[in-house]
Amino acid sequence: MLKKYKPFLRASAMDLMAYKFNILIWVIVTIFEVVCLIFLWLAVYSSSEGGMDASINGFTYKEMIAYVVLTTVFGFVTFNNDTMWHINQDIIKGTIGNYVIKPISYRGKFVASNLGSFLMMGLLFGLPLYGISLGVLIGIGFLPIVSVWDFIAHIGLFLVSSVLACLLNDTIAYLFGILCFYTSSAWGLNSLKTTVISFLSGALLPLAFFSPIFRDIVGYMPFAGMSQNPILILMMKYDYWQSLKVILISLAWLIILELFVKLLFSHAIKKVTVQGG
Amino acid sequence: MHYVKLYFTCIKRSIISRLEYKKDTIISILSFLFSNACSLCSIYFILQAIPSLKGYSIAEVGFFYGFSMLPIALDHLFSDEFWLVAYRRVQLGDMDMHFLRPVPVIFQMFAETFQPDGFGEVIVGVTMMIVCGINLEATITFGAVFVLIIGAIFGAVIITSFKIIFSSLAFIFKRSGPLLQIIYNFTSYAKYPISIYPKFIRIILIFVLPFGLFVSLPINTLLYGSYNPYLLSLWIAGVAIIFFALSVFIWTRCEKRYESTGS
Predict the structure, then answer these.
(1) Chain B environment of A191 (Cβ under 8 Å)
(2) Would you kindly state where each structural domain of chain A is located, as residue ranges?
(3) How many CB pairs lie under 8 A apart between chains A and B?
């Protein structure tokens, strides 16, 4: 049953290998951005009432910098699907027709290729990037480790929530991709998607900084599980019980969203206008 | 005069082709509004927790952020085509038609696209400046307003010049998009007062990649009267003109290396 999706998984992993150079450039771009953010946070903490030792919304400046670095690595490793772009191309070129008549699910194809690139990205860049950043953060004392076993258990929980985050991201990309059926172009929708995700997932700023009501609402949306929660698990800011809770919320959202996109797709496919074909 | 007329004719064509996807255009303007609103919210949430950022109040940082959007937005409106040159067009060799026309290629690049998305940023930027400007304690002088206008316009010229320089490298290396991306992303450093950065970054932001020059210094002039507005205007305009001349020179040198696909 799942075997027929394996080629997609492998193809997307190979694809990534071919673009190693681009990925390297992105690492450089990202490093400069992180440096800018670190200076901003240092300025914020040094201007705060408690000085550098202050804890703002439950984060000390060390934790904040660890959060910024890890979130960046996380986004880099986890969110590299181009589901939306592929759907858009299928609509523009009319190749969407091929998938409707083939005995594989259009959705399944994307899940497989997304997992493929996630695995490849994780092994090729994730391991060294997480290794270096965690090593440095622990080494300079920004991420204190009390018990090694506890840390390893949190890494395990983090991996589970990472996979969920990757799948959630793909589902949301797919959802926006289907919306392209209605707008015929992906440019605007794609930037809207990126913004919504980076803001509501806590990638720009931990949700603890939001105003209380807003924070509670956003906390129960699927986005928090896409960036903030996995990172807070890794940083051991969540205990086991909290970690389990956020993982279950993500899982529930994943199921709800999958059912929703299935319904939406069956409506949208009737709308499709193949241009030329 | 001929060029002005030509420019508007081309731009009209660009807008018409963009409006083919009406819903998408509206969504992309909205998403720019939304994305800027999100960054503003983030900054607001951060600043709410502290009394001031290195002496800048919330209103001042908001004004700063709003102002920093204007040069970026102006550049975005007029010179979006250079991204395509850097990433794709030279590599694919589909620029033959531009080289056959009796008009400079670089002019055609400006005339090729008018990017209405930039209006979203202009709207947010100006709104921010008005909302936060009301709460500023600074006395607004004519000179300060003058230097802000100069900073916005010539700041856009500086950003565009960097775009031209690094996209013209595509004629040599076939693809310079990622490199352009690295340089362009430094504009995000201009969104905050340069006093939050250590000294060597400040020097880079004023003299090497002058993205701090046209945002931070004019605003300090408005808020604290740190610099003589007219001398500063002259400096910004001078730097912009030098960079622009340099970029056009580099472009005209590089475009000679363009290779068609031959098909």
Answers:
(1) 28, 31-32, 35
(2) 7-268
(3) 109
